[in-house]
Amino acid sequence: MQTARALAHELGLPCVSPGAGSVLRLLAAAGSAKAVVEIGTGTGVSGIWLLRGMRPDGVLTTIDVEHEHQRIARRIFLEAGYASSRTRIISGRALNVLPRLADGVYDLIFVDADTTEFAACTEAALRLLRPGGVLIVNGAHAGGRISDPSARDVDTLTIRETVKAIRDSEDWIPAVIPSGAGLLTAVKR
């Protein structure tokens, strides 16, 4: 984990805080997650947290556009003791990859991507998750701007719209967990 965090820092990549990571591990364990999708591999920090909570026979499917990040994450997962059969690393934009994944078979989806893709990723999650599956979107606090009505930047507005869409939907049971950058969490009905 320390190596993954150090590499993320070197590359200028944000990574989940230890508090947010422990929530990822907890939710993966609580749902006895076997099939998990992570959107935004980074250097593998959140992937390790998810793998720590998943069943021993679980597979983490992680998607990222940056090949270098995936190369690092693959190494980090192996160094952390996870066999290569425990991870499926897919290169590409999430919005191009998600339509190719199977419907209704995933236990947990973690979105740690560009905020402009939040709405599309949450729509895809509704199709991909089994009933009772969990969606987690990182960054729900919009860098502390979410509660500031004068904050009108694109990221903050997008996050507000995503939170509202999930809150107002009959398909989800949502909550925002105030850990790390804020975790918008929802269980599929």
Describe this structure as you would to a colleague.
Helices cover 40% and strands 23% of the residues. The chain is globular. The mean pLDDT is 96. It is an alpha/beta fold and 189 residues long. A seven-stranded mixed β-sheet has the order 3-2-1-4-5-7-6, sandwiched between helices. Helix 6 (118-128) links the parallel strand 4 (106-111) and strand 5.
Gist of the model:
The chain is an alpha/beta fold. 40% of the residues lie in helices and 23% in strands.
Describe the structure using short key phrases.
globular; 189 residues; methyltransferase; alpha/beta; Cation-dep_OMT; S-adenosyl-L-methionine; 7-stranded mixed beta sheet; single chain; 7 helices
Number of strands: 7
The order of strands across the largest sheet is 3-2-1-4-5-7-6
Give the fraction of residues assigned to helices: 25-40%
Largest sheet, in brief, is: 7 strands, mixed
Radius of gyration: 15 Å
Tally of DSSP helical segments? 7
Distance between the ends: 34 Å
Relative strand content: 15-25%
Envelope shape: globular
Order of helices and strands: HHEHEHEHEHEHEE
What's the average pLDDT? 96
Protein name: O-methyltransferase
Organism: Actinoplanes flavus
Keywords: Methyltransferase, S-adenosyl-L-methionine, Transferase
Pfam families: Methyltransf_3
